[in-house]
């Protein structure tokens, strides 16, 4: 009695159809293949992390710069307040030096309610300055006038023209002071070269 060959022994599958090749383990490929497949994700992560750190640094720098500008702005506001306070005192002093012409005029109906103007004549010119409501207490020595007709309380000229008139008047006062300071005593005897 002859025995038939065992189908499992020759590597063929039983049943009809072609035989499948024997299964072999897949080769891992080149040595760094898996590593290379993982590296792009890590490199992307590194780039994203570096960009986030850069943005955080920029944000911190911007916040620091903003704080410095706030401190500068506060300093400028304080300095502006001091300059405005000094200006009000100087205007009150100027009004006291010109009692014959200095007058405090309330604004007309076209301007805010608390607006006042200091008007005085110096060197033959009418000069006008706005006075803030908080500064009115400094001008208690200046007579007040009721609101004038439209436009009469507005400055008659711009600040540059007013400043030019003040400079001209200051030079004239300085020259007058020099002229009055010349000694008026007897003249000294002339030097003579006669023997």
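Sequence proposed for the structure above (195 residues):
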């Amino acid at each position: 009695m002859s025995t038939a060959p065992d189908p499992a022994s020759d590597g063929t599958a039983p049943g009809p159809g072609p035989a499948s090749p024997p299964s072999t383990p897949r080769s891992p490929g080149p040595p760094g293949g898996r590593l290379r497949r993982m590296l792009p994700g890590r490199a992307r992560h590194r780039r994203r992390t570096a960009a986030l750190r850069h943005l955080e640094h920029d944000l911190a720098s911007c916040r620091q710069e903003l704080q410095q500008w706030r401190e500068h702005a506060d300093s400028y506001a304080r300095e502006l307040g001091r300059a405005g306070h000094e200006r009000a005192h100087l205007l009150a002093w100027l009004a006291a030096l010109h009692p014959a012409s200095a007058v405090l005029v309330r604004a007309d109906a076209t301007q805010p309610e608390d607006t006042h103007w200091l008007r005085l004549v110096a060197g033959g010119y009418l000069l006008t300055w706005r006075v803030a409501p908080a500064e009115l207490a400094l001008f208690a020595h200046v007579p007040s006038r009721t609101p004038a007709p439209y436009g009469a309380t507005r400055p008659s000229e711009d600040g540059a023209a007013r400043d030019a008139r003040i400079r001209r008047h200051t030079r004239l006062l300085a020259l007058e002071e020099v002229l009055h300071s010349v000694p008026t005593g007897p003249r000294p005897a002339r030097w003579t070269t006669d023997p």
